[in-house]
Amino acid sequence: MKPHSTTLRAALVAIGLVIALGGCTHNRSMGTVVDDHTIEMRVIDAIYAAPDIGQESHIKVESHNRTVLLMGETDTAAKRTKAETLAAGVFNVERVVNEIVVAERADIGTRTNNSWLTAKVSTRLMTDDSLPGFDMDRVKVITSAGTVYLMGDISRDEAKAVTEIVRNIGGVDKVVTVFDYTD
């Protein structure tokens, strides 16, 4: 590839990220947000390029403040461990939380239910009266196989309240928190 076209491609990607992330109102800097998206892309590339993990795995990757959360399914414990090792080796990754389960790939029904549950949890957190003034932009909600993962920057009291609310939502089997505490 020509150096000129590589530079142009990098510039277009950077512009796209700035536009896409321009509406984010959380307390993280634009640089941190871009770093996390870059980490996610690099971890996904590393995992799915590994011939011993392959396409039979369904692994989701989220990054927040350089902490990588791995979720989903793979068919062997060795692949689960390999995914974690690959994620930990990516530039700028400071911590890996490996929640990959050894199981069959989730079917389309399960994935649809995950999306529905994520929307249900997010809506509840935005509208719950016990969280006056709570800023949902500081919490990311991800669901995999009935487990709700919560990531973000909040106080310990907020984390306790949010976790309790989510635990009591119908359809939630388990709650895993990966918070950076602000206090």
TrEMBL record:
InterPro entries, per database record: BON_dom, Lipoprotein_DolP, Transpt-assoc_nodulatn_dom_bac
Limits of the BON domain: 35-104, 113-183
Alphabetical keyword list: Signal
Protein's UniProt name: BON domain-containing protein
Organism ancestry: Bacteria, Pseudomonadati, Pseudomonadota, Gammaproteobacteria, Chromatiales
